[in-house]
Write the structure tokens for this entry.
Amino acid sequence: MKIENLSANKSFGGWHKQYSHQSHTLNCTMRFAIYLPPQVSSGKKVPVLYWLSGLTCSDENFMQKACAQRIAAELGIAIVAPDTSPRGEEVADDKSYDLGQGAGFYVNATQPPWDRHYQMYDYVVKELPALIEAAFPVSNKRAISGHSMGGHGALTIAMLNPERYSSMSAFSPICNPMTAPWGQKAFTAYLGKDKATWEKHDASELMRQATQFVPAKVDQGGADDFLVEQLKTEVLEAAAKVSAYPLELAIHDGYDHSYYFISSFIEKHLRFHATYLNE
């Protein structure tokens, strides 16, 4: 698959690069960012952490704000950040920030007009890793993480594909989207009104029913304005107790929903993933 390099910036001995490519899954041109740590210069194939961002974000937010490259360089981990939805003039959109472009929710849409382009689940699970592993000096050892909508995506994707990911983590994830306004709006639009089809994209439902476990770490800010109405961290915690899921969950007093929170704890997440990626 042909990819086009859009930019390259040296960072902590490695390289942050941005690329575009034509996605067959999403039927549009997509952009992603990749951080390649300095270890690849010696010919070593490194494992990959896939990062899924939240509502209104693109591939750029995490790479520019999270301060992850320093630790990734030390640990020898590549980071791949896809965009959060299909993009383009021909791609369906909505005037509100929480639906349409910038709000793909990491599901495969089944309802028109969204179903033509909004196949983010298949893109993240299948097309993008295949491209990354063919084009860059990386191994097939993968971990996945994300924030907010992307935290929902990371947790659900890993639990639905436990054989593909060594570990999963999330900052401020939408833990129970079936009962949260953001999730209900997106799932109705993308998946239809049959709530039985929503369950496999709800992290709390998946964790409650889990029989295969992917090591999991979740951090949540205690001063997050979205905590009660949208994120529902307590539902995920209760679900983990039902299935005895190996979930490390921490609530941090005073922290909000922003990248100030993510940058404060990203090192712990990267070291968490390194433990399993290097097994």
Q: What stands out?
A: The longest strand covers residues 14-23. The first helix runs from residue 60 to 65. The chain has a mean pLDDT of 98.
